[in-house]
Amino acid sequence: MKAIACIKYGSPDVLQLKEVEKPTPRHNEVLIKIHAASVTAADGMMRTGTPLFGRLFMGLLKPKYPITGTGFAGVVEAVGKDTTLFKKGDSVFGESIFGFGTNAEYVCVPEDGMLATKPNNMTYEEAASVCDGALTSLSFLKDIGQIQSGQRVLINGASGSLGSTAVQIANYFGAEVTGVCSDANVEMVRSLGAKEVVDYTKVDFTQSEKTYDIVYDTIGKSSFSRCKGILTKNGVYLSPVLGLPLLLQMIYTSPTNGKKAKFSATGLRPQSDLRELLNELIKLIEEGKLTSIIDRRYTLHQTADAHRYVEKGHKRGNVVLTM
Known about the structure:
Blueprint: E1 2-6, E2 15-19, E3 29-39, H1 41-48, H2 55-58, E4 71-79, E5 91-95, E6 106-110, E7 115-117, H3 124-127, H4 130-144, E8 152-156, H5 161-172, E9 176-181, H6 186-191, E10 196-199, E11 212-217, H7 224-227, E12 231-238, H8 244-253, E13 260-262, H9 271-286, E14 294-299, H10 303-311, E15 318-322
Parallel strand pairs: 8-9, 8-11, 9-10, 11-12, 12-13, 14-15
Antiparallel strand pairs: 1-2, 3-4, 3-6, 3-15, 4-5, 5-7
Helix pairs in contact: 4-5, 4-9
């Protein structure tokens, strides 16, 4: 089968289209013919091996799992002898959290892992990114931020993969949402449920006169220190982008009352927690309360171009590979 391999850390140029052996499902796995796969900012970090401490999990000198990609959607082609949850022909989506390998024509994943039946009202392309953007944002807002109806929530990077779903999720929970994005995406973010939209090219949202119960910085471009002044007395600053400053701020604010900085590696949470969140997302999708925005589509051999586009930091929603 064809697959994208990353044999060393570096720029998008290290990504190579290769012919590799088609995987065979183990006793508890399903083999999926991939129709679409996500390309995310996290994929770029894995490709470059940053932050450096992440190499403890990804491989010290080169990627431990050379075939790139985590999010996918496709059709079950074969099942292991002990599988009971899925059968050949099922339309599914999910994420290969630790094994990567979804930038390929086929992938094997455990049937009891991050795998679910694709909602009928979603295309394969739309479903491929759900376990990245939507799952991460639901985890941060619901479990880490403890979002409540009536709260004021600011989402930085509101037009991206995490941000576009975060706006919808916060709106679903009854929060008053302020989105931060560029002028080109203001109307899109407003259409997703934001009551107010701030153009970051014209206004510094950290200097706002308003205060917020939650500031969710989906792109890690601000900091707890800069946002502290716009947090309410017990407000929280959330970011999925972990760096040393955020780590120190978490340690400093954790034992105290009042404003806090928080981070969580969604993929490292217990599988039972992630599956519960995924089931909640599926319900929102089936009810039409959560949609997936697709910005650009690339073919498998254009994966490096997809990485270059994502690295620019201006995508609207999600970028996907189509097989």
